[in-house]
From TrEMBL:
InterPro entries, per the entry: DUF2799
Highest taxon in the source lineage: Bacteria
Protein name (database record): DUF2799 domain-containing protein
Species this protein is from: Oceanisphaera pacifica
A Pfam family hit: DUF2799
High-level lineage: Bacteria, Pseudomonadati, Pseudomonadota, Gammaproteobacteria, Aeromonadales
Length: 200
């Protein structure tokens, strides 16, 4: 009797899923499969030195290899650690350049601390310059958005005292916007001496 009930229960569940077509379930499956660092086919045909090289060029840490172990375990493939590390070391030479360091900082990326000791200093200096420029641009955007909010509040405010306060605040924010724009121009002029910086 218990077996019949269990069978009936699962048949009902299966019928509900098929009727509803469960679009969220399909999305979940796609998302879960997308989390794997490698597909089964990639695991089966992997050249681990090439894989390490591409991961190094992308700036991945060695924890990326752990993800490959997990992804390939289902098909019985074990990554070749030695080949992977050799390839990754070569890939990092392309990632850990001053040009890329500046680009990573300018895009607001985090410093991954993956560069070898001989390349890390120049990469980090350029990264810091790029991050300063990123922060300057973000500050300009934030202040400009604050000004828009104040202007919107001012247009809808009827109380005289509050309007006076908002106008005073608006003047202060406009002065702040001028200051941060000046800081950005100064930073750009300083960075123009660095060969990795391209003015945008």
């Amino acid at each position: 009797m218990r077996l019949v009930k269990r069978s009936y229960f699962f048949s009902v569940i299966n019928r509900v899923i098929q009727q509803a077509k469960m679009p969220w379930l399909a999305v979940a499956v796609v998302m879960l499969s997308g989390c794997a660092s490698m597909t089964e086919q990639e695991c089966l045909t992997a050249n681990w030195e090439d894989k390490g090289n591409s991961d190094g060029r992308a700036g991945y840490g060695l924890t990326r290899l752990d993800s490959h172990y997990k992804a390939c375990a289902n098909v019985g493939v074990t990554p070749n650690m030695q080949q992977y590390k050799q390839g990754r070391e070569q890939g990092l030479k392309h990632y850990c350049t001053p040009e890329n360091g500046f680009l990573q900082g300018q895009q607001g990326q985090a410093y991954r601390q993956v560069c070898p000791t001989d390349l890390a200093p120049t990469f980090l200096r350029a990264f810091t310059d790029g991050k300063q420029l990123y922060d300057a641009k973000q500050r300009i955007t934030d202040v400009a958005n604050d000004i828009k909010e104040i202007e919107h509040s001012l247009s809808n405010e009827s109380d005289k005292a509050q309007r006076r306060y908002l106008r005073q605040k608006l003047r202060g924010m406009n002065r702040e916007l001028q200051r941060v724009r000046h800081d950005r121009r100064y930073l750009e002029s300083r960075l123009e001496r660095a060969r990795y910086y391209q003015h945008q």
